[in-house]
Amino acid sequence: MKEFKNKVAVITGAANGFGVEMAKECVARDMKVVLADIDSENLKKVEADMKAKGAEVLSVEMDVSKFEDVEILAKKTLETFGSVDLLFNNAGVVVAGPTWELPLNDWDWIMGVNVYGMIYGLKVFIPIMLKQDTPCHIVNVASVAGLLTTPSMAAYHTTKFANVGLTESVNYQLQAMNSKIKMSLFCPGFVQTDLHNCDRHRPERFAINRDEPYYESVSYKQGLERGKHVITTGIPVDSIGQSIFIAIEEEQFYILTHPQYAPVIGGRVRNMLEGVNPSVAMFKK
């Protein structure tokens, strides 16, 4: 995609972090923007800010882990703007902790948002884009955590590896049918977003049960502290939107933010090919 003026962008997770930066870049390119998020308070603030810049904006309070909500998002987008040209599958959450300690409710939540939320976005919006038969682009937001692994955040790694595999495979499918839909896979490292505060946006059905011993455990408290540290000390978020749009314009599939992780990603692949077993020792250096 090279032309953006008057095109329509749909952004999930638009009330915070990457979503806000994506929205700003869309507005700067004179696009019509659909902001979708479960965080109604911040969603209204972002909508007001975009409208103050003269943008045509629709905000939709919704939950990406509900297929019917994603269908409603598409319906409202088409009713308001008539088409969709750019989709940012951006909404995401994080939980940390040992797999055997993590409550199943946490697994259900992170899988529902990070994996099924992306699947629902593709299932609903790709048919619309195919029917339009116009140049379109989809940006799926994964993480460098989908390209390498660490001893912590097993649930997060699980969902982000799923994002990577899903996006690569769907991209092949679209290429095989000579579709006009292009895709990008955004795999950022640590960036100063609001991700470590995502518990505030849990739907009631995934609410933390304080009767669960895990939420009083050292593992849980250390996970919260670690998450806050790596996010708040990450790179500034304000360069992200422009980087993503450059990738869209150049039809670049992989979008990474931290070159210093390249040797780790490459080393992981090399170890697989050479039959070297993964060892936790590398994290103790």
From TrEMBL:
InterPro entries: NAD(P)-bd_dom_sf, SDR_fam. SUPFAM superfamilies: NAD(P)-binding Rossmann-fold domains. This is NADP-dependent 3-hydroxy acid dehydrogenase YdfG. One of its GO terms (molecular function) is oxidoreductase activity, acting on the CH-OH group of donors, NAD or NADP as acceptor. PANTHER family: PKSB, RETINOL DEHYDROGENASE 10. It comes from the Bacteria. It comes from Alkaliphilus peptidifermentans DSM 18978. Belongs to the short-chain dehydrogenases/reductases (SDR) family. The keyword Oxidoreductase applies.
